[in-house]
Amino acid sequence: xxxxxxxxxxxxxxxxxxxxxxxxxxxxxxxxxxxxxxxxxxxxxxxxxxxxxxxxxxxxxxxxxxxxxxxxxxxxxxxxxxxxxxxxxxxxxxxxxxxxxxxxxxxxxxxxxxxxxxxxxxxxxxxxxxxxxxxxxxxxxxxxxxxxxxxxxxxxxxxxxxxxxxxxxxxxxxxxxxxxxxxxxxxxxxxxxxxxxxxxxxxxxxxxxxxxxxxxxxxxxxxxxxxxxxxxxxxxxxxxxxxxxxxxxxxxxxxxxxxxxxxxxxxxxxxxxxxxxxxxxxxxxxxxxxxxxxxxxxxxxxxxxxxxxxxxxxxxxxxxxxxxxxxxxxxxxxxxxxxxxxxxxxxxxxxxxxxxxxxxxxxxxxxxxxxxxxxxxxxxxxxxxxxxxxx
Length: 391
Hints:
alpha/beta; Aspartate Aminotransferase, domain 1; 2 domains; four-stranded antiparallel β-sheet
């Protein structure tokens, strides 16, 4: 059977499907007629092989407690080896209902109330939420936007914050959301050596690892044995195959002591088996979804190039930061002269667009907007045209 869902230009009506992206504008304080390109899910139908696997499983008609055995691990590990040159072991694997849930479990497992947890703003906003909501303190090693229009790490500040704040836990976003960096081997090694030196545990959120357009994604734990011993690597098919509502992530924790602490927090949270549909979808995605993935990746790459050209030619005062990874593009509006609040007002109420305001990613994100370009080209073109008309 051939892959059927390779038409990425067709617009699928998602309204009325309980879609967080499309059905909750009014509830989230936005006009009902906004065009949504905010939350990180794609407007593409997933692989038809995943559809078929889910339909077949649903026809069984019984949805009792479910779990997977070795074939599941073999499929997941084959994907990691093929796409990221990473050899994983079955005992390292812990499944969770999402990466953000895993971040929260790590905060509970490896820090105490009042401790600081290090992040690199502007960064995916749930990082801050799971830290603060669990009674810990957010400490930021804020990224620096260089003259090359790329973000860079201030390594001196990174180590200084670890020492001064007595940091035990660091959240690494790799590739980085929202600034689009794919960290180099040299950057990751310098970070890792500092963390080993000061005995800092690294939770590496690598959920966007299959979306690299420049450079190469390097699994943090795969760089050195010393890094493996301090790493919790978070992966999921949810971004790659548009399966966010399936609530399944594959978390790899090589160090048995760290894994035991993590599992203990899962037990305390009442988590045992996950939903069977997420397990089925993951197996189908990684075993049969290659053709769909490659076609989708190419389409998104073209969308990114389209956005870059449009911004440079038609949006004076707006800059697109150099984009290396993820399908979330980071747009800099600061040269328009608008305040962050004025910018939000124009984007939402005049352009009628629902993007992610940069300020939710931290103070250093003010004046920026994050736009999801994993959508049909006609939708992306319409969104950019709406920005042109109001900026």
